[in-house]
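Annotated sample (chain length 181).
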Amino acid sequence: MNVLLHICCAPCANRPIEVLRTDAMDVTGFWYNPNIHPFTEYRARRDCLRAYAQEIALPLIERNDYALRPFVRAVAEDIGNRCVKCYEMRLYEAARQAKEGGFDCFTSSLFISPYQQHELMREVAERAAAEYGVSFLYRDFRPYFREGQAFAREHGFYMQKYCGCVFSEEERYIKAKKIIP
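Output written by the structure step:
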């Protein structure tokens, strides 16, 4: 089976790639993350993924849209519920790319994170699959999260501290400020 794996970052993708390859799937990575800000964060995650993809001979399709303004416009009306828009932006594009690229199915490395809203992501991915007429491959990669993080540290990957959006970064600083006396 030929699967397109949307990838948010190398630390989250390393175990899903391994699991899918172990299951005899041909995996192609897909970088599309207009939610990641600032640009230095976007570039650090992308460049780490590029290096890892080259190391493991992973074909990688890149849609390099550093899209601060479109992302902020999409979530500005309801920042508290921004995740659904973020999932839609990325998973609909993954479905479109899978359909146009002739892939059997698509999935995302986002499904490894215990911090993401799995049921919401799954629902969005299924809607995207239906709209584009391509299969969505659901895999709950969360049991591999700690192993993937350890692998990333051992290999010196760039390790981020927030999901990627500017609002998540803000929340991280607000939370840190509350626990500092």
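Annotation: The first helix runs from residue 10 to 22.
Annotation: The chain has one domain: 2-179.
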